Amino acid sequence: MKRKQKKVLVRIIVSxxxxxxxxxxxxxxxxxxxxxxxxxxxxxxxxxxxAVRNIANGQVFDENFLMVIATVGAFATGEYTEAAAVMLxxxxxxxxxxxxxxxxxxxxxxxxxxxxxxxxIERDGKLExxxxxxxxxxxxxxxxxxxxxxxxxxxxxGRSAADTSALTGESLPREIDAGDDVVSGCINLTGVLRxxxxxxxxxxxxxxxxxxxxxxxxxxxxxxxxxxxxxRYYTPxxxxxxxxxxxxxxxxxxxGWMTWIHRALIFLVISCPCALVISVPLSFFGGIGGAGRQGxxxxxxxCFESLAKTDTVVFDKTGTLTKGVFNVTAVHPxxxxxxxxxxxxxxxxxxxxxxxxxxxxxxCNTQIDRSRITSCEEIAxxxxxxVIDGEEVCAGNGKLMDDIGVSWHPCHHVGTTVxxxxxxxxxxxxxxxxxxxxxxAAAIAELGRIGVKKTVxxxxxxxxxxxxxxxxxxxxEVYTELLPADKVEKVEGLLNAEQGGVLAFVGDGINDxxxxxxxxxxxxxxxxxxxxxxEAADVVLMDDDPAKxxxxxxxxxxxxxxxxxxxxxxxxxxxxxxxxxxxxxxxMWAAVFADVGVSVIAILNxxxxxxxxx
Amino acid sequence: xKKTFKLDELDCANCGAKMEAAVKKIDGVTGCTVSxxxxxxxxxxxDDCFDxxxxxxxxxxxxxxxxxxxxxx
Lengths: 614, 73
Prior knowledge:
By secondary structure, chain A is an alpha+beta fold. Among the domains of chain A are: 119-206, Calcium-transporting ATPase, cytoplasmic transduction domain A (Distorted Sandwich), CATH 2.70.150.10; 284-322 and 437-555, HAD superfamily/HAD-like (Rossmann fold); 324-436, Calcium-transporting ATPase, cytoplasmic domain N (3-Layer(aba) Sandwich). Chain A has 21 helices and 22 strands. In chain A, the strands form 4 sheets. A 7-stranded mixed sheet of chain A has the order 10-22-21-20-11-18-19, with helices on both faces. In chain A, β20, α18 (513-518) and β21 (521-525) form a beta-alpha-beta unit. The radius of gyration of chain A is 34 Å and the shape is elongated. Chain B is an alpha+beta fold. Chain B has one domain (2-71): Alpha-Beta Plaits (2-Layer Sandwich). Chain B contains 2 helices and 4 strands. In chain B, a hairpin with a 4-residue loop joins β2 and β3 (40-45). In chain B, α1 (13-24) packs antiparallel against α2 (50-64). Chain B is globular. The mean pLDDT of chain B is 84. The interface between A and B is medium-sized, with 27 and 19 residues.
């Protein structure tokens, strides 16, 4: 509790004790009002002060002012105990509310606190702690076990494991070795690392994420705007209703002024819209925090609203559903051993920089001995011809085989096929393809289970490759051989066909930023460090796992449910107490509950949004 | 120009909403959001009158909630 809150607490206790004494010892005389005024003033003097000050500033429908009218009115109608007690309750509720909001603010910001406090830099042989802002690109920093990685960089020395959970929600530590890139915001777990900084602090991942989460709260959801607009009319409406209630019934019925004025005062107590105005942004904020904990960055409450209604998910293939890394997935030798075929392919392609050549070299585990290659000639659009150990090896596509007059046959495996011929004899082929991520199929099945109606895959890959991947993953619609511009067009087509639903596009952020921006909701994946994606997307999945998608949608739905619960609950209780109050069944106590009690309950409910279900 | 300021002692959510509405009415302001959760106000206004707008915003907010203050760095 802050000092200010403690002071209020002391006043509450003093006032409560005084009130109890007054209740026990004070006789029912005309001067009783002055006795009850003591606990009333102890607890309410600041409210009265604020009311006067705000009226001077032209704030008519100020909650302090309304509370003062209500309680002074109660005094005037002879309800001394009630007047003091209502003020007491009001202040207690406000205190609760302020503590609860403070706590939730703190727990959410702690959750998102990945800001590194310092970086260790070596100066004159000694380690110094400096502000990460002062470190320049190219500086070498030391990261000890247990410390946060302060800036993005590349490991020069050391081996360790990094806890990336603050960024990705992934609890399994990531292995780090010399030569690896490290991302700021992770925690170094086991070993000392010497890292060369590759990005200044302002451009490091951690700053990007912090900026994003801090701005998240300013992108307000429709519900939030609705509530603030509602609040603007709610208070005057209730106040005028109170006025009408105080005047009209006694005029019609002739008399009973005291009863009706008392009922009107109840209205004034309920007229503050704070419970509503507080609970909606708090729920969204909690949801953003809870999603962040799972490695899902949401750019604002409005994104939750779209995400929850998603019924079509469009995927980019490479890097999103597949690993985006080419691997040899099949080796089919004809006349030689599997190992020999792989070796020949690797040697033939040893001087090429093409990703396919890299995949072939990776498949062959042995070090390439260049002295065995006597000549090597690249044939554009065909492949390579090389002389290895005195044998002529041709590696390439079907066209190359036709050119040299070797009979070949296509492979039943889908992917890029490299045929090999040795001394003019067909030796077999290797298939290179991009591997589907282990979690992709399950992720798509999960989307179907939670009610996403349509999944679509877009890819720039060959038709056969794309269709095969879609079939394996259980994706309904697939469009292949698309250029980046075609993807935008396809998504626009799907958007037009869409009726009322929401279309989400999921991409890895590399050259699909325009599509991310065009979709109803753009989701960038595996974006640790990819600036364009973070800029263009509405939701960023921090790691590569497509399974996070269903989690993101479920978190959005849960958050929205909490928001609606709070709105219905707060409005419901207020409406109920207003009706009961008008009919004379509700006391001013119930009214105080409908005001501050509801706020506290709504705040506690909003905090549920922060919890993560696994 | 767009700038974010910290709001000290913003205790009442409705006051935040009132401040947002009031700041939006200041001449030259093109956008304003008050985030009750992060206790921050973002003001967007034309470059040439920005400092003036901020001064007015501070004044307007003080009128609405005298306990709460925009911290102008």
